[in-house]
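call fold(seq) -> tokens
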Amino acid sequence: MTWRALMERYLKKAVEADLEEKMVFLGGPRQVGKTTLALSLLKNGNEEHPAYLNWDNIPARQLLLRGALPADEKLVVLDEIHKYKGWRNLVKGLYDTHKSSRRFLVTGSARLDHYRRGGDSLQGRYHYHRLHPLSLYEINPTPTRDDLEHLFRFGGFPEPFFKGSDRHWKRWQRERRSRVVQEDIVSLEHVKEISQLDLLASVLPERVGAVLSINNLRGDLSVAFETAERWVCILENLYFCFRIQPYGLPKLRAAKKEKKLYLWDWSLCANEAARFENLVASHLLKYCHRAEDWDGDEMELKFVRDSAGRELDFVVVRNGKPEFAVECKVGEGELSRNITYFAARTPIPLFYQVHRGQKDCEHGALRARILPFAALSRILAV
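ret:
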């Protein structure tokens, strides 16, 4: 297999370009490759490089708290600094003092736009990028069936993907969840019930692709509704999972409050149909985030469900208007009845029915196409 991702991540050029204008904040799940990307921007970069300052490293922390920076380094990487209560004021001070001579790349395994601890705003001083797991197009613009099956099986996080070992995948998964729960949540959130949050993280894969009922979770966890909702939000802010909302279409009685759940790591889904749907959701979210963070468009990933239960798995919305819809199927069957139904009643301009096989055909009158996932990955081009 020839995997382009061995050489360079998809955001590298965008981050380099934005560093010429402002600070860059780089968020994303733990172990998705943020530090590796950041170090690739430093000359002969590794974790011992003087310009790489990790908040978890005591000497680096002391240096930052003194307001000192390594000499003769034009790019400074600040890693996991959001764990510090006053991180935004600290970063603002460093940037305002040194912006004429230094560039700053701030990375973190949490939503840096959410953890705004400290009173002073950094608005206008940074560009924000979200780094996603490896996608099919990123590893190979002309992917083979083997490429897809490998990505489907081991997920898009670089370490287990490149190792390609079931034993390594299982050990890596256990260690990663432990670090998310035991380290990230403890350092960022005031939560005492760590064992229950660990239980929540373990049961969410069973709910992928379905409407997430907080009431059901509340019962499973024996906590109040508000507590269960807050815990799910915590896992969203730490890039463990994400939810998508229903899209309300004109002249259509659509569900408005339900949310569907997906994981940033689709390989956690034991059910293959749910895993494939999550794989597609992750690629679509990556497409949306790239368009938001780089192109500046307002992007939303949603789904459609009407009062009769008819559903489209995904609708991509750009600047308030539907761009295309995607329906996931396990096999290469005929066009979904739901696509036929919604094509006649909605302004959605394109419908894709995606699968893991080879069938590729168009239904022009319905603005629809049945296509392999590899073909959709080339359309998304992320």
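The longest strand covers residues 311-318.
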